[in-house]
Amino acid sequence: MVLTCPVGIGRTTQRDQASGHSRRKLLRAGVLLALGGAAVPLTGCDLFDRDDEPAPPPDPLRPMVDESLGLAAAHRASAAAHPDLADRLNPIAEAHTAHATELARVIGVAVPSAPAAHPTIAPATDPAGALAALRALEKTGQRSATVACASAPAERAALLGSIVAARATHQEALK
Amino acid sequence: MRQPSAEEALATALSAEYAAIYAYGRIGVRLTGAARDAAHQAEAVHRRRRDALVVQLSTAGSTVPPDRAGYALPFPVTDRASALRLAVEVEERTAAHWRAALASTTGADRDQALAALVEYAVRATRWRKAARLTPPTVAFPGRPT
Predict the structure, then answer these.
(1) What CATH number does the domain located at A62-173 have?
(2) Where are the domains of chain A?
(3) Chain A residue numbers touching B139 (CB-CB < 8 A)
(4) What was the ipTM of the complex prediction?
(5) In which domain, by residue range, is B74 found?
(6) pLDDT, tens digit, for every residue of A113-168?
(7) Does residue A165 belong to the interface with chain B, where contact is any CB pair within 8 Å?
(8) Which of B18, B26, B99, B115 has most Cβ atoms within 10 angstroms of its Cβ?
(9) How close, in Å, is residue B118 to chain A by CA atoms?
(10) Is B56 exposed, middle or buried (0-12, 13-18, 19+ CB in 10 A)?
């Protein structure tokens, strides 16, 4: 609270200089500015310059929405490249989409229409290679969901546990 | 609804393990070969968890629910097909009890509950594959339907 005062007047000073206000006012402001500056570097005070509230930190589950959508996209891409695998891969893709939908509902965001941060990796040309790549993705996803479950509040733990388990069963289904 | 305590959740999981062990006794005799071996392995896993839970609850001074002489099966086990279906059911139901324990636990107890949920969900998928059920997975393992 102490910091906001001098910084606020410091800003006023700049405006006053531009519009030519009285010298006394400027001096007083300058003293306060100097005091403020002695207490803390001015650049640090920019934090207090905003009128609006700082944005709340992103929900820790937000990355899992994208991860689920990325996994769904990977399965769909492999199903498109290998139609013989489609019957196996499409239900798994649907499960990942269902996870994304449920996670988004829990954290109160809309489901993004396309995964943002996941680069599309071209599926392997042979079916066995495609399955192995998907198993590896599921394994990585199982690990990240396990970490999320361990630290989650009680009301989210069961959902995350099901997602961990689903990703484990997908590896089994892809064998 | 009040959140059960960790002890209550683990006691409920223990009762589910008792029932699973009983059910596998009925399942194993209807299977042969690799499926029978898998049933014996699955039963051994449920016995290990039962034993660990009895020790854990006793050590903590909690009430250890008693085993019963018999448990009602959801449908009669008369052949391989019904034995495999019951095996899927047993794993899904025990998985559901461990899933429920996640919300009541933290730290090592939650890790333990998650490991059980994952293991039983995977085993349910293996049984579905053995029974040629498609798809062999569910979207939210252990979630009440």
Answers:
(1) 1.20.1260
(2) 4-49, 62-173
(3) 94-95, 98-99, 166
(4) 0.96
(5) 6-130
(6) 765 545 567 888 899 999 999 999 999 999 999 999 999 999 999 999 999 999 99
(7) yes
(8) B99
(9) 4
(10) middle
